[in-house]
Amino acid sequence: MSKFLHRSEEKEIMDDLACSGQELTQTLKELRTINKLLGGNNVTTSGLAVLMKSSKNQPMTIADLGCGGGDMAIHINKWAINKGISLQVIGVDANPNIIELAKEKAKKENRTIEFVVGNVFDPDYIKDPVDIQTCTLFTHHFTNEELVNILKNLKSKTRVGFVINDLHRNFLAYYAIKWLTRVFSKSNMVKNDAPLSVLRSFKKKDWEEILAASGIEKYKISWHWAFRWQVICWF
Fold first, then answer.
1. What are the two backbone dihedrals, phi and then psi, of residue 46, each rounded to the nearest 5 degrees?
2. Where, if anywhere, are coiled coils annotated (predicted)?
3. What is the Cα–Cα distance from 118 to 41, expressed in whole angstroms?
4. Would you tell me which of 92, 96, 123, 136 could form a disulfide with 118, CB atoms 3.0–4.6 Å apart?
């Protein structure tokens, strides 16, 4: 079980910001299905609901970081409309190829969402501060040291708080997703990256150490099915 003691720093195929083409399209399609079937998207929106309790129904702006193909940004948009909440959603990703796919998907679904290319290591990854930022299956792509820098950047661009939705590192999650992707996936990227994502993900102690190093004192960490950590931080 030694492979689960510490976070892996092995890079995923998707970490290549130049990745594109049919393999990327197939990967995003399969990830969309996995997240939908396992209910992971609700971990983000339930966190948003907590942060928005004090908004008194005022219009808010949300930036979804590492937005990928736009699935979570679109999910947030649909969730807000169904709840009668006024939200402006901005999807941010460092891969320009993925941003183009996200724009196409949002247009196809007739969703009014802004998608921009931005790197979270850049202090100006978004032009203006927003009310809330979300990170869904995004933070595991970075080392602890990198995450500390990213979270400090987020704090400077966030008025209310942010929601992190990412994986729980353990043997059951690892072998379950490894088996599922081996049997059902048609994407070599998914077969490689999905199990590796678990090895790169977190235990609760990891989050406590990262948040402390980032200077974040007000937060809540909770576990959700399937093998997700919800980290809510507010200011």
1. -70, -30
2. none
3. 22
4. 92
158-167 vs 130-136, strand pairing mode: parallel
Angle, CA 106 vertex, CA 101 and CA 112 arms, to 5°: 135
Which residues have CB under 8 Å from 151's CB, separation 6+? Answer: 210, 211, 214, 216, 233
Domain 14-168+211-234 has CATH 3.40.50.150: yes
Domain boundaries, the chain: 14-168+211-234
Whether the model clears a pTM of 0.85, i.e. scores above it, the answer is yes
Integer Cα distance of 24 and 15 in angstroms: 11
Pairing of strands 228-234, 219-224: antiparallel
Complete DSSP assignment for the chain: -GGGTS---PPPGGG-TT--HHHHHHHHHHHHHHHHHTTTHHHHHHHHHHHGGGGTT--EEEEEET-TTSHHHHHHHHHHHHHT--EEEEEEES-HHHHHHHHHHHHHTT---EEEE--TTSTTSSSS-EEEEEEES-GGGS-HHHHHHHHHHHHHTEEEEEEEEEEB--HHHHHHHHHHHHHH---HHHHHHHHHHHHTSB-HHHHHHHHHHTT--SEEEEEETTTEEEEEEE-
- Say if residue 205's pLDDT is above 70: yes
**Residue 1: per-residue pLDDT:** 58
Beta bridge partners of 61: 88
pLDDT of residue 62: 98
Q: How far apart are CA 131 and CA 121, in angstroms?
A: 19
Cis amide bond preceding 226, omega within 30? yes
